[in-house]
Specification:
By secondary structure, the chain is an alpha+beta fold. 56% of the residues lie in helices and 9% in strands.
Length: 211
């Protein structure tokens, strides 16, 4: 029988950080799986939307679907991955879109109720990649939040609030300072993992304690 020290128990209880952009199809796929994976190992997940476009600007990257050969393969891989895990997916038009409004509302909701914030995130993802609803307009994401119980006008105010504009900027800057280079990006006890296809590795890492 293995007896853990208090420090080891604390390390095991550290939450997984889940960085994602609402316009990321791989982030969408990971959002369907990350909580169950974490719960399997007795972990919680901190959901942290950020602006992937800002990372692309720093790295000099172009949007995925504008990269001819990579776009063709990625579209195949996204749909194949969605079928594998039985996740509904249709590539939206337009794609990608700016996600500032969704990110700001997310952090406003999180300040009130973390569980509802995750519900909102899933609803936004589902609207975009499940129902082909453009999530860039602030009115659209306010309507999504309204459906889970929030006042529409309060949501519009939150989008325009400097507090939540700055919160989203701060998380994006933090992500870049921590070398977050794509979406989804996970930190497990400080160990970085990039991509939906790394969730299996995250599972193994948590199971074994790392290698």
């Amino acid at each position: 029988m293995v007896v853990l020290t208090s420090r080891e128990e604390d390390e095991l209880s550290e939450p997984i950080e889940f960085f994602f952009d609402f316009s990321s199809p791989y982030g969408y796929l990971a959002s369907h799986r990350i909580n169950d994976l974490a719960a399997k190992h007795g972990r919680l997940v901190i959901w942290r939307p950020f602006l992937l476009g800002a990372v692309f600007q720093v790295n000099g990257q172009s949007a995925l679907m504008s990269q001819q050969f990579k776009a063709d393969y990625s579209l195949l891989d996204m749909t194949r991955s969605a079928r594998r895990f039985d996740i509904p997916l249709q590539m939206p038009d337009p794609f990608p879109v700016a996600t500032q409004a969704a990110g700001r509302i997310y952090y406003w909701i999180e300040d009130q109720d973390k569980a509802l914030a995750r519900q909102f995130a899933k609803a936004v993802y589902g609207a975009y990649f499940g129902d082909n609803i453009n999530i860039m307009p602030k009115e659209t994401v306010a309507e999504i939040a309204e459906k889970i119980g929030f006042d529409y006008e309060d949501c519009i105010c939150a989008i325009n609030d400097e507090t939540y504009k700055q919160r989203l900027k701060d998380v994006t800057i933090e992500a870049m300072n921590r070398n977050v280079c794509g979406s989804p990006f996970m930190f497990v006890d400080g160990e970085p993992f990039w991509g939906n296809d790394r969730l299996e590795m995250v599972d193994q890492w948590l199971e074994s304690g790392g290698w």
